[in-house]
Description:
The protein contains two helices and 13 strands, in the order ββββββαβββββββα. It is an alpha+beta fold and 234 residues long. The two termini are 34 Å apart.
Amino acid sequence: xxxxxxxxxxxxxxxxxxxxxxxxxxxxxxxxxxxxxxxxxxxxxxxxxxxxxxxxxxxxxxxxxxxxxxxxxxxxxxxxxxxxxxxxxxxxxxxxxxxxxxxxxxxxxxxxxxxxxxxxxxxxxxxxxxxxxxxxxxxxxxxxxxxxxxxxxxxxxxxxxxxxxxxxxxxxxxxxxxxxxxxxxxxxxxxxxxxxxxxxxxxxxxxxxxxxxxxxxxxxxxxxxxxxxxxxxx
Length: 234
C-alpha cells in the first residue's frame, strides 16, 4: 500500500440529509468533494424559494441536499446521486441542483474510474533526456497522482497547476487528432518551485495506445472540471 492510501478507511455517518460514506480522516478527503450546505432554517422560509407557494399543513417544505434552500415538493422532488458529498443513495435536490449533479455523474462514473485504473507512459522529469516506463493512476482517495516504475512519485492533485495534452494528427483543414502525451506542471509542498513532468504514450501495442489515449482524455476532463469546481466553491 502506498503512503497516500494508508489512511483510506471510511465510515458510515448519518446526517439530516441522509447516509454518507466518508473518510475517517479529513485529510483523506477527495479534492473533488463538497461539504454539506447549512440548511435554511424553517422559520426563515414561509414560502417555496422557487415558486413562492406558501407552506402549510398540506404543502410541506423540503430542503435541497445540495444548496440547503427550502422548496415545495413540486420544486424539489427529484432524487439524484450526489457523490461529491459521499451520499450512499440518491438524495432530494431542487431542479437546478439536480441538473448540475446529473451532469457530474459522467465525470464520477467514467473519468475518475479511468484514471484510477491507470495507464502506462514513458515519464520524463524536468529537462532530463532520460525517460522511465511507469504506470500512472489516480489514488483511491482521488488526492494523488501515483507513478510507479523503478522510481515512485506521488503528486498531490491540488498542487497541479497546468495540464497540457499533447496531440498528433491535426491538419490545417481540420481532422482527427490523437492524444499522445501530456506535460504536467506542479508544485512540491513547502516550495514555490514549479516542477514539470512529460508523459509520452507507449507505442508497444495498439491496446496500450488506446488505453493511454483514454487516460489522457480523462485527465484533461478532470483538470478542466477541477478548475470549474474551485470557481464554484469560491
